[in-house]
Amino acid sequence: MISLTPKDALPEDGTAGTLVGRVWLPQAGGPAVVAVRADGVFDVTARFPTVSALCEESDPAAALRATRGARIGDFEAILANTPPDGRDKARPHLLAPVDLQVLKAAGVTFAISMLERVIEERARGNPSSADAIRKEVVRLVGDDLSKLKPGSEQAMKLKQVLIDQNAWSQYLEVGIGPDAEVFTKAPTLSSVGSGMDAGLHPKSTWNNPEPEVVLIVSAAGKIVGAALGNDVNLRDFEGRSALLLSKAKDNNASCAIGPLLRLFDQTFSLDDVRKMDVGLTVTGADGFVLEGHSSISKISRDPTDLVAQTIGRVHQYPDGFALFLGTMFAPVKDRDARGEGFTHKRDDIVTIAAPQLGKLVNRMRNSDECEPWTFGVGALMKNLAERKVL
């Protein structure tokens, strides 16, 4: 069972920044948009019915600071009531801090993750083949492509060399080619928050967490803040075929975002995101511990480029979107058999952390064991209308 305190969720500077969350209110039968402040958690739903609506303000952080709201409790108590095993359903609990935003993800944005995708493809989803293939791919491509600008003349020359050696891959195409891979991670409103169970497809036997920064973007394409995310990945499914991407990525509870959304203000900016290191710890009931990190400074495409490739005249998002930036984390530490690398086991605790965003903590379960997702867009609109906040 997960046990959480504010120290496990808040940024290192506490509530100094502008922090937004969503809380389930049992008495209202639905979610509240909340501001998390030093003196408590405040319901601002009467002013901002959705987080999406708040993010459409010209200055979301200033708009939230100007709205007092109604105090609904201490952050500590709400956070502690969030894990499903010990939850009191009559009391509020934390949700993922996004709602109507479309859940998008960028893939193959770091050199090392690009190489791992090539390895998955060649291993056809079989982890026992991965180690030998990894050595061969690194021999052909190298293991430091961080200075290679995607779409550049240098990148295109490398592409031709690899084609000539019969070593080209669709993952290299989106890794060093001009066009980024951006896909829809999960349905709107389906993400789980910190303290909740995250899901793995029950048929998967080779999978891993993906610690990432998630940008929150308005309908106009303006980046307004960031949170942490786990873009849970099934290496066996996607390795068998890239056409299985939806099954590899979109399963019940397979999209975790949280613990809170930090809006850009005088304490936090996009430049802070560009320099951010995201840490990962996986702790197993079997005593296994895996640690890793992802440094946004090593990303191959700037966050503004990824946003520009997601939204524009050819593709609009009227309620905005949340964009996972990708990860450089490559889980190659053996857990069981030598050479087979890492895969999750039931009840693994995954902690994704960054000093300015706090900690996103989830327990891993099969997707069919996680809480069913039943509260969709229709239910949200009906609930907000009944509460007379729309």
From TrEMBL:
Its name, as the record gives it, is Fumarylacetoacetate hydrolase
Keyword Metal-binding applies: yes
Superkingdom assignment: Bacteria
Q: Which family does it belong to?
A: Belongs to the FAH family.
Named from the GO MF annotations, one term is:
metal ion binding
Which keywords belong to this entry?
Hydrolase, Metal-binding
